[in-house]
Amino acid sequence: MSFPKNFLWGGAVAANQCEGAWLEDGKAPNVTDVMVGIGSKDPGLKWNQDKQKYEMCLDPNKVYLSHEAIDFYHRYEEDLELMAGMGFNCFRTSIAWGRIFPNGDEEEPNEKGLAFYDRLIDKMLELHMEPVITLSHYETPLHLITEYGGWRDHRLIDFWKRYVTTVFERYKGKVKYWLTFNEVNNMMRNPLVAGGVLTLNPENPEDPIGSTTFEDKWQAYYHLCVANAWTVKLCHEVDPQAKVGCMLTCSSVATYPYNCDPDNVWGAFDTVRMSNFYFGDAFCFGEIPGYVKRVWNEHHFEPVMDHQELQLMKENTVEFFSFSYYRSSTYDKESDVHGDTGGLTGKENPYLEGCSPKPWSWPIDPQGIRYVLNVLYDRYHLPLFIVENGIGLDENLDENGHIDDAFRMKYVEDHLKYVHEAILDGVEVMGYLYWGPIDVVSAGTGEMKKRYGFVYVDRFNDGHGTLERHIKNSYYRYKEIIESNGDILL
């Protein structure tokens, strides 16, 4: 009745939210380096009419916290030791593509970038933490977007193959779990960041996100599906012992019909398919699903596809399914459905007891994670890996230098209890990685005020702060949960 003995306990971060050192040791800008939160509708790009392309144009009135972030690049040893202090046997982070190939299209990699990840991964292994490495976590090199339009261009597949082959060969035998594209199923709502795609020569150059065309988004979708298959194939050729999984945001799998109106039941189902399964089906089954082809047909669009690449997709599917879950949502045909980094936002669910504290006020639905686990396992029959689940709170040190974050621990405990219920249901769950175990720059809003960590970092939205680390009360509770392999919750 316990959690599995080999259960992976730990936490997750991303390079663009924690490393900083955004132009250090040969790194060039990536797409999130020019944004203050991926929810921004005004990224730091300016259309050059003469050159007919976008160029980086940072706003001097904005604070780009990610440029320094929490300085994990220089403090990773201290931070990993704090993670090991909780008993982590697993830690997830990403490799910044632009540290290895700064512009993305170079022939040879940047040795200084590789050397940093040598040190980082070796430190994880020294502390007996299994590295879980995301290959692309909202970090497409900016040059690939401004010069090629990103993943709309087939040439990115070859650039990607060169990148992943390089890191597979470098870290062979050290990394057992690789994730391809983080939350790539967000690309229809946020094509620039989640999909790494941009329409060049747009009709409305002041809106680089909104100007991305239907055709470019769906052509990029196909290229990403092919790149995912190449990743599986190349990994198995280089390191047969390693495994490749997808990583999708699956909060929206828990999209409930607001009532039993058949239109709402179908609307919720179709929303889930077009928010999650359109990538999940391609990655896990190796086929473009029929409901996607219907969308193409209704828009009189036919992407450029290659029969050999379609066969490659069929033969190289992922070996496990990793995902993020933060909250559930509802579908009501009379209400608009919006989305952000936490998932979809529909009509308020009257059956949920509460929301996270203001200013974000995300609905809290621990039972939703059991629902998501069962739906995904029933559909894909693959091992499932929870690689993001957490709660962002506005908190500061008290007069004694402490933070009593009981709300966070209730969130974690409640969700883990329903993870255990899913395991009893027969779902194969590989592990649970909390997002993020140390305060990092928020992906959605680009701020430090939204704190997720068990470890507090002294940095604030205006950029000031000592960067000192302080352990919160939740640190010790999560340590107890891990030490008991979850039994303390049962």
UniProtKB/TrEMBL annotation:
<feature type="active site" description="Nucleophile">
    <location>
        <position position="388"/>
    </location>
</feature>
<protein>
    <submittedName>
        <fullName>Glycoside hydrolase family 1 protein</fullName>
        <ecNumber>3.2.1.-</ecNumber>
    </submittedName>
</protein>
<dbReference type="Pfam" id="PF00232">
    <property type="entry name" value="Glyco_hydro_1"/>
</dbReference>
<dbReference type="InterPro" id="IPR033132">
    <property type="entry name" value="GH_1_N_CS"/>
</dbReference>
<keyword id="KW-0378">Hydrolase</keyword>
<dbReference type="GO" id="GO:0016798">
    <property type="term" value="F:hydrolase activity, acting on glycosyl bonds"/>
</dbReference>
<comment type="similarity">
    <text>Belongs to the glycosyl hydrolase 1 family.</text>
</comment>
<dbReference type="InterPro" id="IPR018120">
    <property type="entry name" value="Glyco_hydro_1_AS"/>
</dbReference>
<keyword id="KW-0326">Glycosidase</keyword>
<dbReference type="InterPro" id="IPR017853">
    <property type="entry name" value="GH"/>
</dbReference>
<dbReference type="InterPro" id="IPR001360">
    <property type="entry name" value="Glyco_hydro_1"/>
</dbReference>
